[in-house]
Amino acid sequence: MNARAKLLLITAPVLALALTLALGAGDTPAPSAGLAADSRDAAARDLLALPAAVRDAARSAVRDGLFWAPAGSRFEFDLRTELRLATTARDEGERRDESPPLRLSGVLMVDVVTRAGRDAVVALQCDAMSVDTGGATNTDPEWAANVAASTARTLARIDVDGRILGYRFPAVAAAAQRNWLRGLYGGFGFVVPGDHGADWSASGSDSTGDYTADYHVVRETDGQLEIERGARSYVTRAAADQLRVDVDGSARAVLDRAELGWLRSCTIAESTKVTSSDAPVEFDIAVWASLELRAARFDPAIVDPALTDGDWAPAGGHGEDPTAALEARTTAEELAAIAGATVAALDQELAELLAQDDASRALQDAWRHAAWLLEHRPEAIAEVRALLADAALDPKRASLWLSALAEAGSPAAQAVLADVFGDELLTAEVRAAAAGAMFDVVHPSPGLLDAIARRVDGLQSIDAVDATAVLALGAMAQRDPAAAAGDRSALAAVEGFAERARALAAEDLWLDAIANARSPRTEELAGSAMRDPRDHVRAAAVRALGTVESPTALAALQRAALGDGAADVRATALGALASRSDAGSRESILRAAESDPDATVREAALFALARRGAAADDHARLQAIARNDASQGVRELAARLAGSR
User: Fold this and answer.
1) Which of 52, 55, 290, 479 is the most exposed place for a label (fewest CB within 10 A)?
2) What would the pLDDT profile of 403-420 be if each residue is shown by its tens digit?
3) What is the pLDDT of residue 64?
4) pTM for this structure?
5) Which residues contact 405 (CB under 8 A, 6 or more apart)?
6) How far apart are CA 643 and CA 645, in angstroms?
7) In this structure, are residues 507 and 546 in contact, taking their beta carbons and an 8 Å threshold?
């Protein structure tokens, strides 16, 4: 499977997860996360009209459980969700693309159709679901399928604590739509044990994995309970070897345990960073969502005890595998797009598009077609190798063909990358493009790894071409550390570059490659390098420590941010702390912004704070910086951050 299909497989669960995770740190301010008191009061005037005998029997049946609403209870909620997705391509100079905001709105119908002991079977259905893509035209049939699935009836089995136990999905929901529905509904699942205290933890599942979440009571009055759910920590994940999921933010809910036995309102304000180790891409997901009860009534006619029978799909969809269906659809689309295409015709199209000022979208499409041609017609690879041997070939066009070979990813395509990289008759620019394209190879072949490892082993000097190859070897080792590179593993080849790097005074390059490889020894090796007297080596050590999640690595970054003697090292450490969510890192960033003697470092601290998201508690300190800093640039940046709160 090519990298595009692989990326789609990674993206699909990420987008489903996005609907359960919400806005926290990020560049886009969230709508207010406060609960709408007016809406709650309006709903309070429209309580569920339960016969007293039914209410008392329902409470008695579940005893101390909070979700005791009897079969026949019908709830109608206003549903609002806003999703923002930013994608960062790590192999393109950290290029960040932000998609237009996606807004969903509609009415969520929740019917308690039967009870089985202490569990409830609930029918979920969205009426008049509307999708607003922020003015952008979206013709993706997947969205239409998702909306159709949400307007059909989904059954969920829920225990008296509010934990979702399983689903029974509508027939129109394929694997992708089932995960869409898990994402749509799962984020509104709040778990409140009957014997809860002021604080508790509970487990749950969604489309991307199994998680734990911390809860605490915000307010408890008149039979109502207001709670807050903190950030979720994933225990198991979809594609656990490929996706790292970091969640921040919170959700609040008001539950009526006296009259309704159900949720009354909630808002979600969380953010998620999803990092893939299998493709050079990161996703930053920001979601704001709300449910507000608009009506509640009792209708015994909806009760259907037979709905407890049959099989239930698990609450978490991370075990479902849509790979086969997605691969088949992707292959069909690609073959249709390259019908009749040739290397010569595509090369001519690339040349014409490169000569135009504004043809980026068309150029991207032509490049995709080139990659698909090389994947589905292997005989075209030899034609491209002959094309690359032409000294008159435009280097930009050569770079596009080389990246298309990497995207195709077959052993034959990788062999051409290695051959071009090692061909001393070609220009350094073309050879560097071949080395750079190696970052895009999702599944490096033993032949490619061996060729690069042998080149690295024999280096007598370092130029830009070879430096790129060293870093690419690290990136490829991360994707498959145990893959053979000659008579050793790819990871061993990267770690074994240490002695050669010292001889070439290239320890910083080696540390960057170690970080790319996510070596288990990264902290050990980078920690030693933090004592190096050379600034550029310590800066590389800081970059490497930024990839390590451990208390000792975090402490080393905080010390470097505040105490290293070189401004560049302090600024690099602050950038690494920007991705950390702990209070100590935030304090280190603010202290550097307030007191570092170098204005460039103070600016770096403020940029780090902007990436994390300035909190309300930071406002006074930012205002002080905006008034008092000696640098106009620092003052202006602090003022902008203070004004964003």
Assistant:
1) 52
2) 999 999 999 999 999 999
3) 76
4) 0.55
5) 371, 374, 381, 384, 413, 414, 416, 417, 437
6) 5
7) no
Rg for the chain (alpha carbons), in Å? 28
HEC profile for 264-305? Answer: EEEEEEEEEEEEECCCCEEEEEEEEEEEEEEEEEECHHHCCH
Give Cα separations from 612 to 27, 28, 141 (angstroms): 9, 11, 35
- DSSP for 198-255 reads SEEEEEEE-SSEEEEEEEEEEEEETTEEEEEEEEEEEEEETTTTTEEEEEEEEEEEEE
Alpha carbons 473 and 438: distance in angstroms, whole number: 8
Minimum mean pLDDT range among 58-62, 91-95, 491-495: 91-95
> Any alpha helices (H) in 438-563, and if so which ranges?
446-457, 464-479, 490-495, 498-503, 507-517, 522-529, 535-545, 551-563
Please tell me the total number of residues recorded for the chain in this structure.
Answer: 645
Query: What angle separates helix 428-437 from helix 395-408, to the nearest 10 degrees?
Result: 20
pLDDT of 370 over the 80 cut: yes
Type and span of the H or E element at 138:
none
Mean pLDDT in residue range 584-600: 95
**Scanning the structure block, which residue is given the tokens 């893509």?**
133
Q: Which is it for strands 102-116 and 119-132: parallel, antiparallel or unpaired? A: antiparallel
Secondary structure of 185-199 as H, E, C letters = HHCCCCCCCCCCCCE
549 to 522, 553, 607: CA distances (angstroms): 11, 7, 22
CA 60 from chain centre, in angstroms, equals 44
Q: How far is CA 472 from the centre of its chain?
A: 23
User: H helices within 45-174, ranges in order?
Assistant: 52-62, 141-151
CA nearest neighbour of 168 among 117, 231, 125: 125
Summarised one tens digit per residue, pLDDT across range 298-348 is 999 999 999 988 888 888 876 665 555 556 667 888 899 999 999 999 999
What percentage of the chain exceeds 70 in pLDDT? 86
Q: Which two tokens stand for residue 85?
A: 């997705």
Burial of 109 (0-12, 13-18, 19+ CB in 10 A): middle
Q: Are 26 and 284 in contact (CB under 8 A)?
A: yes
Please write the tens of the pLDDT for every residue from 176-221: 788 888 888 888 889 999 888 899 998 877 766 778 889 999 999 8
Which tokens belong to 483? 């893959």
Q: What pLDDT does residue 590 have?
A: 95
* Cβ neighbours, 10 Å, residue 228: 16
List the one residue out of 461, 385, 393 whose CA is nearest residue 419.
385
Residues paired with 131 in a beta bridge: 104
Of the chain, the percentage scoring pLDDT greater than 90 comes to: 56
CA distance 497 to 455: 11
Q: How far is CA 300 from CA 51, 113, 158, in A?
A: 11, 9, 19
Q: What is the pLDDT of residue 55?
A: 82
Site of tokens 């953010």:
271
Average pLDDT, the chain: 84
Name the band, by pLDDT with cuts 50, 70 and 90, for residue 283.
confident
Buried b or exposed e, range 133-167, using 16+ CB within 10 angstroms = eeeeeeeeeeeebbbebbebebbbbbbbbbbbebb
